[in-house]
Amino acid sequence: MMKIKIFVLSVLLTFPIVPQEIDFNLPHNIKLFADFLFCEKDYLRAIVEYKKYLNTTENDTVQFKIALAYSKMNEFNLAFANLEKIKRASIFYQDGISEKLKLLFIQNNDSAFYQFAKNVVSSDIKYQKLYLCYGLLNKIKYGDKNKFLAAFDNEEKISVEKFYEQKLNPNYKSEVLAGILSAIIPGSGKIYTEEYGDGITSFLLTGLFSYLAYTNFDHKHYTRAWIFTALGAGFYAGNVYGSVASAQIFNAKVNFEFENGLKLYLEEKNYFIPEYEFCK
Amino acid sequence: MIINNKIILIFFFLITQSVLAQTDWVRWEKSSASYQIKDDYENRSYDLSIESISDILVKPVINAYWFFISDVDGANCPFHPSCSTFLVQSVKETNIFQGTLMFFDRFTRDTNVFGRLSHYPRYGKNHFYDPINLYTLSSDRIKIIPVNTFVNDEN
Question: Which residue in A34, A134, A232, B60 has the fewest CB atoms around it within 10 Å?
Fold first, then answer.
């Protein structure tokens, strides 16, 4: 019984003897906690803690991190508003411009992007890269390839050149040619637009109904013959129409893949913004 | 009166059992399973009102097909919208001539059973998504959806 009492007493005593001594509300500790949350990608809570910290101390790094956190959460307007608060004297001012350019790029707002870009692009070559890529996405063609590629590093040039070539000479299919091919040989227009299965099916269906119409006319079964003629003509004309539509879809896919590829590349390159060393 | 420790233990055990009992009976109730493939029958407009000249030709034929064949046969078209709905929509969006051409082209795609999985986005579990806006010959209306993207998960 005595042993139990000693045990309970020792357990109870440890609580007042070893109490919590860290004051979590000290600005330094708030910032440490916020940094931890930021690096754990818990951006929403990191913002709350950073704002708490900014109430006591002015800090441009924290201000910049709040903007980054909003950006990571796809809250672009809030991110932009927080980037605006960074003063010209701050070491993050230049990075802030890169981030703003990136945000406007992602938002794909032409007028806002060009309005902002025209003021900053001439000031530093590093902003030009994103500006040029935005042009690639938005139907602007650049005449001189070397001039276009001059802004990029050697490593980047290889990939960007590919996108440039794709933009200049897209692998489009002619809608007219697809229609004409299908008019000559049913299904060939679809094969031209790389719809092989549909092309073969179209050829077989048109051929089948044409054959049925022919044999029925030959055997003087005129009612059936006219029904098959109508169906054969329907499939023939539908196939010519479908080949033109198929070429349009093919071209839309080329554009879609180009845009997606470029966007993925830029995402991978973090929009030409070097990685920050906040979490290293 | 001396209360036995065992009785107290059993008493508490029984009390906790009833206090923490499962109350969410709905989850365990008998449910009536339906193995019927859901389709958008409810979205079909069976009306025969004439709004344009093409309605005189298309609506009676399509209504007859839906009423006598499709509704009885079940949702067997692999596409969404189904071929008959595709015809109605395309005639409504364009005209009787272009709509018919679009329908014949769709029927060709329907007949081709090869490579569908690697070609179309998905609509629910059982359908391929093939909307009319891809085939109106208006390039502005073409919106590419990547293959195997699930457009709708309701089915």
Answer: B60
